[in-house]
Amino acid sequence: MKVGAIPFYLGRNGLQVCLVSTTRDPSNFTIPKGNLKDGEQWSKGAMRELYEEAGITARILMPHTPLIIPDKDIPSEGVIFFWSEVISIAKKWPEKKFRKRVFCSAERKPDVKLSRTGTEVFNEILDLNLGARASQNSQNLDITDWIMSNLDKLRIRADLDYRSRSGLGLR
């Protein structure tokens, strides 16, 4: 099982999402993710992977409503992504020698080349118009509150998509 974190923060340039280069092809970028260790909780594994790959400490928002992206080779498997608000960004991190870290606007497709999983996650962000909505609401509403109030819609959509693509069917 793989887990990951979608790290974001609201900055001067709107909602920003962190991407990291892949180890297979450093010109490809993706959302931080990796394998769970034996006995590790999904949320703790996601936070560990986020720090190892991107040097980011974050807070998971609504841990019971992750985004699920099915595996292309094994549809019943997938990556469980947790929406995560950035708390701190380290200058040095465990995989800094192997990975680049970039922050992109959540309002448009990034200028970097995305991996398949990175593309799928970013398409969810764009389809939900999170970047534009966050920018519009930044004057009146804390971004964390706004994201949390909209994650249920996201979870339902991801669950239906996962079931249909993985052959689990709808019940």
Describe the structure.
33% of the residues lie in helices and 30% in strands. The chain has helices spanning 42-54, 116-127, 130-137, 143-166; strands at 2-11, 14-21, 28-30, 33-35, 56-60, 67-70, 78-89, 101-105, 113-114. It is built from four helices and nine strands, in the order E-E-E-E-H-E-E-E-E-E-H-H-H. The protein is of the alpha+beta class. It starts with a strand and ends in a 5-residue tail after the last helix. Strands 1, 2, 3, 4, 5, 6, 7, 8 and 9 form a nine-stranded mixed β-sheet that branches. It is globular, with a radius of gyration of 15 Å.
Globally, the shape reads: globular
Question: Which class best fits the helix and strand makeup?
Answer: alpha+beta
- Provide the succession of SSEs: EEEEHEEEEEHHH
Low-confidence stretches: 160-171
Helix content: 25-40%
Query: Mean pLDDT across all residues, rounded?
Result: 82
Q: Tell me the Rg in angstroms.
A: 15 Å
Q: What kind of sheet is the major sheet?
A: 9 strands, mixed
Topology overview:
Blueprint (H helix, E strand, L loop, with lengths): L1 E10 L2 E8 L6 E3 L2 E3 L6 H13 L1 E5 L6 E4 L7 E12 L11 E5 L7 E2 L1 H12 L2 H8 L5 H24 L5
Parallel strand pairs: 1-7, 3-9
Antiparallel strand pairs: 1-2, 1-4, 2-3, 2-8, 5-7, 6-7
